[in-house]
Amino acid sequence: MNGEVNTKKNVLLPGKTALFLTLKIRKAEVIMVTGMKKKEKITEIFFDEESPVINIRTYNTDLKNRLTRFSNDYSDECKLVDDSGNGMLDFEINKGRFCFRLTSPYSEERRQMLSRNATQDNHLPKKK
C-alpha cells in the first residue's frame, strides 16, 4: 500500500442514511471521496468591466460559509448559482459587495513602534 492508511468515518446527514466516507492518508496529504487533492481545490474569481456581477467558484470552506451567510441575508446582492456536489460552490455577487484588499508589509521600524505602543497600552504582555 506504499504508506497509505485507509480510514472510514460514518457521517450522519439529517434525513439521510449513514454516509461512509473513506479517506486515504499519504504523506500528510488527504484525498477525499471526490478524488481531488487539496492543491486541486481552487478558488476562481471572474469578472469583466461590462458585467455588474462577479462570479466566484470555490472549494474554500471559510469563503463558502461567508458567501452562503451573505446570500441568505442579502439575496438581492448575492446568490448561490450552482452546487457541484463535489464540494465546490458557485456564487454571483454584485461588484460593489466584493473587494480585494492589498496590504503593504510593515517596516521593521513600524513593527517595533506598534509593539512598543501595544505594550505601553497593556494590549500585549511585557517581554521578560
Description of the molecule:
There is one protein chain. The strands form two sheets. This protein has a four-stranded antiparallel β-sheet, covered by helices on one side. The protein has a three-stranded antiparallel β-sheet with strand order 1-2-3, with no helix packed on it. 5% of the residues are buried. The protein starts with a strand and ends in an 8-residue tail after the last helix. It has helices at 61-73, 108-120; strands spanning 5-11, 19-26, 29-31, 43-46, 53-58, 78-83, 89-94. The protein is α+β, with helices and mostly antiparallel strands and 128 residues long. It folds into two domains: 1-38, no CATH class; 41-102, no CATH class.
Can I get a quick summary?
By secondary structure, the protein is of the alpha+beta class. It has helices spanning 61-73, 108-120; strands at 5-11, 19-26, 29-31, 43-46, 53-58, 78-83, 89-94.
Set down the secondary structure blueprint.
Elements: E1 5-11, E2 19-26, E3 29-31, E4 43-46, E5 53-58, H1 61-73, E6 78-83, E7 89-94, H2 108-120
Antiparallel strand pairs: 1-2, 2-3, 4-5, 5-7, 6-7
What attributes characterize this protein structure?
three-stranded antiparallel beta sheet; 128 residues; alpha+beta; disordered N terminus
Give the class from helix and strand content and strand pairing. alpha+beta
Biggest beta-sheet profile:
4 strands, antiparallel
Tertiary shape: elongated
Percent of residues in β-strands: 25-35%
Distance between the termini: 51 Å
Please mark out the parts with pLDDT under 50 across 5 or more consecutive residues, or reply none.
Answer: 1-32
Q: What is the strand tally?
A: 7
Mean pLDDT: 77
Please give the domain count.
Answer: 2
